[in-house]
Write a structure and sequence with these properties.
The complex is a heterodimer. Chain A is an alpha+beta fold. Helices cover 33% and strands 12% of the residues of chain A. Chain A has 2 domains: 112 residues, Ubiquitin-like (UB roll); 77 residues, DNA polymerase, domain 1 (Orthogonal Bundle), CATH 1.10.150.120. In chain A, helix 4 packs across helix 7. In chain B, the strands form 6 sheets. A 7-stranded mixed beta sheet of chain B has the order 3-5-1-12-9-10-11, with helices on both faces. A 5-stranded mixed beta sheet of chain B has the order 7-15-14-13-8, sandwiched between helices. Classes of the chains: A alpha+beta, B alpha+beta.
């Protein structure tokens, strides 16, 4: 990652790796195992950013390269919604508790509100748009539509991303695995029972497509 | 024209409902072609593809972000606010507070108590004190945090029971009672108890539940000189318009409110909030659009809740199951301002079961907490918690099946209303009978009695029934339908679709009447600038309010087309009927014309039909009824309760769409599980008076792990020919009323412990199990 400021002049603390620390806390419950390994990294070579300065950043979102300037503290969620206009990713709590902002980062469902934009550089980010072929819905979306797996629809993008991530890791999940797979995503309208059905149906649709998605 | 659209505008050849003569109401539908089917939502694609633009998704050129400074104390007076340093912070465009002239306006929580938008007296944690607009959301919050405030912190009250003690500090001049206790009495309560064979009494408490819609409360406000446009996450654009216009002193025509989509509300977005006004003021001051959505913490503090309730109930019964008397009293609170703390809290006790002698008393008090807002079936779930549990206990006491007991006491008329008017339909009996049958109630009870409870994991089954005080819909509503020259349709209505499927149901009504496919109906809704007047979507009244108006508008189109076709065919209009895409003579079937060939339609380009909601039947009550059944497993070592399955048998008149109907039942039960088992607002009564659990980790909305996959919706569908011209009653509220009580009754069935307080979590249950062992 290219920095806009010189490390020598930087007043940031070198004793703790801000980057490494934030990576740890930003990972969310679903990726504990992944961040665990990062936590064990030595901090000496970690890059340190100046929070006062904008940083140049390249994000790979739905296979498109997006270049922009960000404050190091901006969340991926904020960048997606308010800087890139990609509002299919929703905001609900901004502290990793509701799951409305779930996106796939390297095929793992992650809370984009707890992921700094700068952390996501170099990773494959997939949002709802990335599940579609042009205007055609992906199988998980189609399953949510047919099973009426939503009411107001606001948590739905996050639910769909969680199911997508689940099915990537586990193409034929059991009912209990489905339940756990979406347990990080709140649906206040309470359509969980239909979400379970949709996830099951989506796994069937995907397998019928020969995993072509 | 695309091939896929050719010849498919209409459902081919089906006869359409008869067109009534002008000035007469249409007969209720008989057999329907579209209504009642399981049809995916007309806007499902938008919602699952991300193309639906919710108010929080709006982004305008030059838009700033707003944020609000809130009082951190439950009771305090602001002595000084210093915003000087904040004005110069990077990105900050405007700061407003009580001392900036544009923000010196009235905002009152009720008619009786006048307060300012930024009032120096903060009676609850989270009261608004100042607001900022900045280039980015991060800068706006930096600025809010940098505002310096001096407070005089005052003593507080967080318990509605302590609020009435003589030592309690007054929250408002005149004391902590919102109003004198409300009393109701019918029959002779003493006589009723004297006639009873068994009398039981208990006290119950339900905790404060918070709405927590996933889309946060807020809006984007933008001015074009003196024309204000607001994109708000709301249940009713017209209610936002009228309040904003009133507070800002603007004509209605200068305030346009748009809310095409919205991400949940459950009553908390029936009205705008201070945030709406603040966004408008910031936008005016900066001459830029301002986006102001609250943080999750702010929504848990300041934009509504279901009041906590303390209920004492005493009921008498004869050995044959006849209820003789109910005595009900309650103290509840809507927080720091009058906010309906006891609203409808005693309704079920007065009206659900046949009982000649009833007395109720409810006291609404102030505490230092955020004001309540209407929450899905106000008053009903707390009352159900107490009433349905005391009934369950009475059934045990007289050794009667609880379903049987309820069947014995079904009213045919509303006892609590003046003159005892009859209900148009009372589906309660069918809900009980059919629900019990689908659940396998008797077998399940027998199973528990015989072999359910040998190990440390105990099984139990329970049930509860309900009615909802409203749900019949009402005037006013205006709807406009346009029939284009190719036969496709535009439906224009003011109502919001809050996730219940309003748009889908209304498209189906159009399809039923006009014979067009539902997906050929373009819908324009929830915009005060371009759509018709509608009351907010809430109270289970949207379908029974809007559907008859939509039907009336569609009929108006048909009447005009018949007159036009009569000219073409040179026959009497009254001799013509619709058959799919054609208009045909009843007398001579060779005389027919395609709708799209009618010259009047071609000449005018489109036909416009205006429909109005008619009055409800005089002297009758239109209410939905319900019964829910559940099976639980209680782990007596850990206090964990697993809900195995639920059956919801609901009578809400005609089922308009099976998919959205069943989904509503699933959702209501899920929210009821939250009310009964996981949710509670926790205020620190001892030291700070602050909300302890102002996040979604500590305030526990049910997750996918807390609900059963097995929730069955049993549709009870009487032919209600009086309710309205569509026969539909509301469903959104009744689905959540009996859930918590049904669970508590099932747990009693499993372990013999009566749980009087929500939430039924392991913490509470382990204690009760331990106490029970000691006593045992």
């Amino acid at each position: 990652m290219k920095k806009d400021h010189d490390k020598k002049d930087c007043k940031c603390s070198h004793s703790i790796s801000r980057r490494g620390f934030l990576t740890m806390i930003g990972s969310g419950a679903m990726a504990v195992a992944v961040s665990g390994s990062l936590a064990a990294e030595t901090t000496e070579d970690a890059e340190v950013m100046n929070p006062e300065e904008m940083t140049r950043l390249t994000l790979l979102i739905n296979s498109h390269r997006r270049r922009l300037l960000v404050e190091p503290r901006w969340s991926l969620l904020y960048v997606l919604r308010e800087r890139l206009g990609m509002t299919e990713t929703k905001v609900g709590c901004e502290r990793g508790e509701c799951g409305a902002c779930t996106v796939l980062i390297d095929n793992i469902p992650r809370y984009s509100c707890l992921t700094l934009a700068v952390e996501a550089e170099g990773s494959q980010i997939i949002t709802l748009e990335g599940l579609m072929k042009g205007e055609e819905l992906g199988p998980v979306q189609q399953a949510f539509l047919e099973k009426d797996a939503f009411q107001c629809g606001y948590c739905t993008p996050g639910q769909i991303m969680a199911v997508e991530g689940l099915l990537i890791a586990n193409p034929n999940p059991s009912p209990e695995e489905i339940r756990r797979g979406v347990s990080g995503n709140l649906c206040r309208c309470g359509s969980y029972a239909n979400i379970f059905k949709a996830a099951k149906y989506a796994s069937e649709l995907k397998r019928a497509n020969g995993g072509a998605e | 024209m695309k091939e896929e659209h050719k010849g498919l505008y209409y459902m081919q050849g089906i006869p359409l409902p008869e067109t009534p003569a002008p000035g007469t109401a249409p007969a209720p539908w008989g057999q329907t072609n579209i209504i009642g089917k399981a049809i995916p939502r007309v806007d499902a694609y938008d919602r699952v593809s991300g193309s639906a633009v919710y108010p929080s998704d709006i982004s305008l050129p030059g838009m700033l972000y707003g944020a609000i400074l809130r009082c951190p104390h439950p009771n305090a007076v602001v002595r000084k606010i210093d915003t000087e340093a904040v004005q110069k912070m990077p990105g900050v465009s405007a700061v407003i507070n009580a001392s900036t002239s544009e923000a010196d306006i009235q905002w009152s929580y009720s008619n009786d108590i006048k307060t300012k938008l930024f009032d120096p007296i903060c009676r609850f944690e989270g009261e608004a004190l100042a607001a900022v607009a900045a280039d980015t959301l991060y800068q706006a919050w930096d600025a809010v945090r940098a505002i310096k405030v001096e407070y005089e912190v005052l003593p507080f009250i967080t318990s509605e029971r302590k609020a009435l003690e003589s030592s309690a500090p007054y929250i408002h001049k005149g004391g902590n009672r919102v109003k004198p206790a409300e009393m109701y009495e019918r029959g002779n309560i003493e006589k009723g108890f004297a006639e009873a064979d068994v009398i039981l009494e208990n006290t119950f408490r339900t905790e404060c539940q918070i709405h927590v819609p996933v889309e946060l409360h807020g809006c984007v406000a933008s001015w074009d000189r003196d024309n204000l446009t607001i994109w708000e996450s709301t249940q009713g654009v017209y209610s936002v318009q009228s309040r904003v216009a009133e507070v800002l002193g603007l004509p209605l025509s200068k305030v346009r409110v748009i809310g095409h989509y919205m991400g949940g509300a459950f009553g908390s977005k029936i009205q705008p909030g201070k945030y709406t006004i603040i966004a408008a003021l910031l936008a005016k001051k900066t001459a830029r659009p301002v986006k102001l959505f609250l943080s999750r913490e702010e929504t848990l503090l300041a934009v509504g809740n279901r009041p906590p309730a303390n209920i004492k109930i005493k009921a008498g019964i004869k050995k044959d199951g006849t209820l003789t008397a109910i005595d009900f009293s309650a103290i509840a609170t809507g927080g720091a301002y009058p906010a309906g703390g006891t609203s409808l809290l005693d309704w079920l006790a007065k009206d659900l079961y046949l009982c000649p002698n009833v007395r109720t008393e409810t006291a609404d008090v102030y505490i230092n907490a955020g004001p309540a807002r209407p929450f899905r079936a106000p008053g009903h779930p707390p009352c159900s918690w107490a009433l349905e549990q005391i009934l369950d206990a009475l059934a045990v006491a007289i050794d009667m099946d609880p379903v049987e007991l309820r069947l014995k006491n079904i009213p045919k008329h509303s006892q609590a209303r003046e003159g005892n008017p009859p209900y148009t339909t009372t589906g309660l009996e069918e809900c009980l009978v059919e629900g019990a049958k689908s659940f396998g109630w008797q077998e399940a009870r027998k199973g528990v009695a015989e072999n359910g409870n040998k190990g440390y994991i105990k099984r139990g089954v329970g049930m509860a029934s309900a009615l909802w005080v409203a749900g019949g819909g009402r005037q006013p509503s205006t709807v406009i339908i346009k029939l284009f020259s190719d036969g496709s349709v535009n439906l224009n209505m003011g109502a919001s679709d809050i996730g219940t499927g309003t748009k889908t149901v209304m498209a189906m009504v159009v399809a039923e009447e006009l014979g067009v496919r539902p997906d050929m109906v373009q819908i324009e809704n929830a915009d005060t600038g371009t759509t018709q007047y509608a009351t907010p979507s809430g109270g289970s009244k949207t379908v029974p309010t809007e559907a008859p108006a939509v039907r009336a508008a569609a009929i108006e189109i048909k009447r005009q087309l018949l007159v036009m076709a009569a000219e073409d065919l040179k026959v009497e209009a009254s001799s013509l009927i619709f058959k799919g895409e054609e208009i045909v003579s009843k007398i001579d079937t060779s005389k027919k014309i395609k709708v799209t060939a009618v010259s009047g339609l071609k000449k005018t380009g489109l036909v416009v039909g205006v429909g109005y909601r008619g009055p409800n039947p005089e002297g009758k009550v239109v209410n939905p009824f319900a019964a829910q059944f559940c099976e639980v497993e209680v782990n007596t070592r850990t206090g964990e309760v697993k809900i195995i399955r639920f059956v919801g048998a609901h009578e809400s008149g005609r089922v308009m769409n099976q998919l959205t109907y069943d989904n509503q039942v699933i959702g209501g039960i899920t929210m009821g599980i939250g009310f009964g088992m996981t949710e509670a607002r926790v205020l620190d009564g001892n030291q700070t008076g602050k909300l302890v659990n102002k996040n979604l980790h500590d305030y526990k909305v049910p997750t996918a792990l807390d609900v059963p996959a097995d929730i069955l919706s049993v549709r009870i569908e009487p032919d209600d020919r009086e309710a309205n011209t569509t026969g539909a009653k509301g469903l959104g509220e009744p689905v959540t009323i009996p859930t918590a009580a049904a669970i508590a009754n099932a747990i009693y069935n499993a372990i013999g412990i009566r749980i009087t307080q929500t939430p039924i979590n392991p913490l509470q249950l382990v204690q009760l199990l331990s106490d029970n062992r000691k006593e045992g």
